[in-house]
């Protein structure tokens, strides 16, 4: 039997494995979404993405009318849920969108298993389970983020290239290129795995690149044609000009990629698996990579790991959700390496497989997801009281965090009334630079300080929820405290702004 052929006898175990992997991934991501933080709450980034989609469906074009520092893919993908907000309200539509993205994240684990199909159900189960239980993947894929569908595109491209290697039809290579191009529509960083996959296409690289070009044109050109210089400045120049973060050294980045807590506890990961385990797990990854290199057909997984790992280790800034970029390659080499070892163990692969899967499950259970979400999400706001207070304000309300207005069901009505709303008020710090043109962090950026204060105080009312994270200087925070309080709910205050932001 050819190595890629799968007999009827083995199809059913493969189907069962895919169902199990999908269920594990979905349960983990939905658990992080539902418990303990309410489904209707979120993080800053997903609020930015969803509010940008709300802006878009109300006629405000990305880059031209709305600052957005990423490719347009996540906003376009969120647009159906933004339209749904007209019927259900912002909060419910936001919750539905987050749930769908979490389920797509679970699908990524299934795609990892499919990519391992040639090595049998054992490899599929181990690799798929490793991805489904990966903290790096689950942390990112529990809500509306760039990397959810970006990872889907890369994994789909990998699977389609595998199909293309067994069939002569060029359309599979073309489709693989389209899938990789969709990833780049979501995040520029996916150019790196695209290059690796393009090289894997071999003599048909032209068809692969053509497919990527088609996806790129479809994703970028409609927005680029409307505002070419602004889109270039926001998506490319602003990212290249980000001030370098010195807060995440190499060992902490490696630990983050492997789901290990940082020394100072700032990673959001519980301390049960501390930094002392990092060198041991790095050594294990090296061994698995060497085994994959010795396995025909698996070297591409190592190439993906090396390429994506280099991006994370060399990037000027680093956040925990970046680690999802290496989660799939790690799971892939884990599946191949485990089966390689199992095939050479006297008692057969079943014992090794059982131990590996049980160990992975125990690792996931030991990571207290409740603690993770409590550390990574902001404090849950008293939404009912805030909403009641906001309903008494006849005019536009703005904020430093779009999520809060989404949860208050206030953003769609305000946009419908013509209010101007910044989906990413913090992001203006990357395009509004001080004299000299070099981006600096917001507390040291006088241009951004003036713009932020002008934006907040030009609305009828404003609400600050991010505290010091937003980056206002002590002098500007003092000005905020002097502005008239309209309503106070716990430690959150809706203050009077001034001039209306309504158009017309």
UniProtKB/TrEMBL annotation:
Give the record's keywords alphabetically.
Cell membrane, Glycosyltransferase, Membrane, Transferase, Transmembrane, Transmembrane helix
Q: What is this protein called?
A: DUF2029 domain-containing protein
- What PANTHER family does the database record attribute to this sequence? MANNOSYLTRANSFERASE YKCB-RELATED (PTHR33908), MEMBRANE PROTEIN (PTHR33908:SF11)
Where exactly are the transmembrane stretches of this chain? 12-34, 67-87, 99-116, 122-139, 146-166, 172-200, 207-227, 277-294, 301-319, 325-342, 351-369
Organism the protein comes from:
Amnibacterium setariae
Q: How does it sit in the membrane?
A: Multi-pass membrane protein
Under the heading InterPro entries, the entry gives: LipidA_mod_glycosyltrf_83
Entry's Gene Ontology molecular function annotations: pentosyltransferase activity
Its main localization is membrane
């Amino acid at each position: 039997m050819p190595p890629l052929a799968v007999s009827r006898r083995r199809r059913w175990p493969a189907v069962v494995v895919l169902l199990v992997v999908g269920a594990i991934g979905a349960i983990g991501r939905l658990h992080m979404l539902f418990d303990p933080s309410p489904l209707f709450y979120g993080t800053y980034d997903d609020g930015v993405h969803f509010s940008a989609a709300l802006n878009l469906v109300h006629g405000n074009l990305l880059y031209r009318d709305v600052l957005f520092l990423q490719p347009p893919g996540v906003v376009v993908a969120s647009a159906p849920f933004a339209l749904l907000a007209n019927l259900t309200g912002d909060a419910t539509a936001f919750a539905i969108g987050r749930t769908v993205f979490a389920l797509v994240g679970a699908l990524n684990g299934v795609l990892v298993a499919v990519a391992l199909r040639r090595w049998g159900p054992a490899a599929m189960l181990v690799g798929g389970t490793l991805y489904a239980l990966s903290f790096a993947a689950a942390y990112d894929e529990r809500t509306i983020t760039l990397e959810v569908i970006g990872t889907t595109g890369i994994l789909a491209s990998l699977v389609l290239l595998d199909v293309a290697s067994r069939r002569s039809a060029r359309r599979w290579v073309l489709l693989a290129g389209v899938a990789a191009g969709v990833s780049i529509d979501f995040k520029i960083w996916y150019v790196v795995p695209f290059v690796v996959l393009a090289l894997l296409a071999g003599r048909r690289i032209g068809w692969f690149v053509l497919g990527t070009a088609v996806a790129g044109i479809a994703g970028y050109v409609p927005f680029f044609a409307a505002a070419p210089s602004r889109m270039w400045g926001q998506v490319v120049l602003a990212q290249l000009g980000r001030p370098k973060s010195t807060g995440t050294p190499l060992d902490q980045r490696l630990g983050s990629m492997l789901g290990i807590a940082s020394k100072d506890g700032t990673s959001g990961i519980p301390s049960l698996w501390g930094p002392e385990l990092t060198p041991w797990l790095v050594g294990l990854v090296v061994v698995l990579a060497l085994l994959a290199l010795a396995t025909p057909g698996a070297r591409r997984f190592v190439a993906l790991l090396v390429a994506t790992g280099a991006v994370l280790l060399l990037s000027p800034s680093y956040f925990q959700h970046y680690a999802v970029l290496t989660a799939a390659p790690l799971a892939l080499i884990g599946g191949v390496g485990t089966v390689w070892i199992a095939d050479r163990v006297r008692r057969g692969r079943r014992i090794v497989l059982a131990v590996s899967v049980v160990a992975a499950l125990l690792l996931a259970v030991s990571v207290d997801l409740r603690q993770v979400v409590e550390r990574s999400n902001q404090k849950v706001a008293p939404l009912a009281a805030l909403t009641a207070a906001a309903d008494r304000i006849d005019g536009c309300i703005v904020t430093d965090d779009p999520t809060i207005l989404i949860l208050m069901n206030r953003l769609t009505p305000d946009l419908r009334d013509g209010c101007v709303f910044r989906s990413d008020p913090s992001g203006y710090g990357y395009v509004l630079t001080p004299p000299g043109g070099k981006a600096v962090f917001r507390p040291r950026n006088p241009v951004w300080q003036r713009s932020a204060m002008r934006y907040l105080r030009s609305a009828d009312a404003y609400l600050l929820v991010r505290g010091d994270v937003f980056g206002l200087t002590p002098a500007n925070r003092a000005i905020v405290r002097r502005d008239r309080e309209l309503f106070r709910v716990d430690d959150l205050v809706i203050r009077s702004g001034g001039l209306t932001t309504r158009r017309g």
